[in-house]
Amino acid sequence: MSIQVTNVVKTYGEQRALNDVSFSISSGEVVGFLGPNGAGKSTMMKIITCYLTKTSGEVSVCGYDVEEDPLEVKRRVGYLPENNPLYLDMYVKEFLTFIAGINKTPKARVAEMIEITGLGPEQHKKIKQLSKGYRQRVGLAQAIIHDPEVLILDEPTTGLDPNQLVEIRGLIKSLGKEKTVMLSTHIMQEVEMLCDRVIIINKGRILTDQPVEKLRQATQSKAVLVRFTGTVNTSAIRKLPGVLRVKKTEKGLLVESEKDLDLSGVLFKYAVDNKLSIEESRPYELGLEEVFRTLTANT
Ligand code: ADP
Ligand code: MG
Questions:
Q1: What's the rounded mean pLDDT across residues 41-66?
Q2: Per-residue pLDDT averaged across 85-114, rounded?
Q3: Largest CA distance in the chain
Q4: pLDDT tens track for 178-202
Q5: Which segments within 188-297 are labelled E, that is strand?
Q6: Which protein residue has the closest C-alpha to ligand 1 atom 10?
Q7: Is there a shared CATH topology between the 3-212 domain and the 219-297 domain?
Q8: pLDDT tens readout for residues 136-147
Q9: What is the Cα–Cα distance from 96 to 31, expressed in whole angstroms?
């Protein structure tokens, strides 16, 4: 197991930023750690990377406990912190040479990192002269310079423009072929693009932990978009058998079913009973983004 997190609690004063969090990540997996702002993503990642101590619970990386063997953990973990703090006055190559020194990594790795992350043309610039996208490449280069087995990337694409986004995602995708990756984001689409599995966290608690494919399947054909003539009583529809949720949208009423139930019969009966007719009714596929919003809105 690459990362093992068991019953972790982290409190900041009165506040529980992590509330009994458990999950594990196997070697080679690429896992999306998804949650809105303030969910506890960065806190969890800082604990895994030994930058913060937990209040209680157990965390180990490649079998090493983060508190008993922090040096062994750090040797195996590459970390791109949130907001990617860098020494802005250093030159790219100088900075990476400095990091190689700290990690006792052969200097030859610097040129290799510059090659892998596509920093060649920028290597003689100061970090502060670089665009956000190139700064992220420097951040990734410093994270992988000691060739760690595990990569922890905290919102690696936040603040990038669309072109930079594509490039950095491409780089992460290729790194994911060789390493165990845990990346945090608040964008479901990014998880779909890059990850095998998604762990959704909100308010310090894990809401979902499953393969992206399985979550996608679970979201299919579970809703109907229906338009009635005349006014409908939304709360009456909510109480119909098999109905999980009802939402008013511009295109009509979005009615979600509890399981894979076909709701058209129940809705038709409702229309007849209330002397309404149905203008349009069609199956509606909930996107993963929608599932994420629903999950995090109701907790
Ligand atoms: P995320 O990365 O998902 O946005 P964080 O882990 O940064 O979430 O924060 C989780 C919660 O803990 C938030 O409510 C945040 O305000 C709080 N928090 C984070 N760091 C500190 C700190 N150093 N002191 C007090 N509260 C903090
Ligand atoms: Mg964060």
A1: 98
A2: 93
A3: 79
A4: 999 999 998 888 999 999 999 999 9
A5: 197-202, 205-211, 223-228, 243-249, 252-257, 278-284
A6: 40
A7: no
A8: 999 999 999 999
A9: 27
Q: For residues 223, 187, 183 and 22, what is the CA-based torsion angle, rounded to 10 degrees?
A: -50
Confidence of residue 126 (pLDDT cuts 50, 70, 90): very high
Using most ligand atoms within 8 A of CB, pick from 43, 48, 205 the residue to mutate for ligand 1: 43
Domain-wise residue ranges, the chain: 3-212, 219-297
Instruction: Evaluate whether 40 touches 200 at the Cβ level (below 8 Å).
Output: no
**Which one-letter amino acid corresponds to residue 102?**
I
Rounded distance from Cα 50 to ligand 1 centre (Å)? 16
53 Cβ neighbours under 8 A, 6+ residues apart: 47, 67
Give burial (CB, 10 Å; 0-12/13-18/19+) of 270. buried
CB distance 39 to ligand 1 below 6 Å: yes
- Ligand 1 atom 17, closest CA: 17
Domain 219-297 belongs to what architecture?
2-Layer Sandwich (3.30)
Whether the Cβ atoms of residue 75 and residue 146 lie closer than 8 Å to each other: yes
Give distance in angstroms: CA of 40 to centre of ligand 2. Answer: 7
- DSSP H helical segments within 177-263, as ranges? 188-194, 212-218, 234-238
Stretch 59-72: mean pLDDT:
97
Examine the pLDDT at 148 and tell me if it is beyond 90.
Answer: yes
* DSSP letters for 64-128: EETTT-HHHHHHHEEEE-TT----TTSBHHHHHHHHHHHTT--THHHHHHHHHTT-GGGTTSBGG
Q: What span, in angstroms and rounded, lies between the C-alpha atoms of 234 and 232?
A: 6
Ligand 2 midpoint to CA 49 (Å): 14
Given the CA of residue 44, which atom of ligand 1 is nearest to it?
Answer: 6
Q: Which fold has domain 3-212?
A: Rossmann fold (3.40.50)
Compute the distance from residue 38 Cα to the ligand 2 centre, in Å: 7
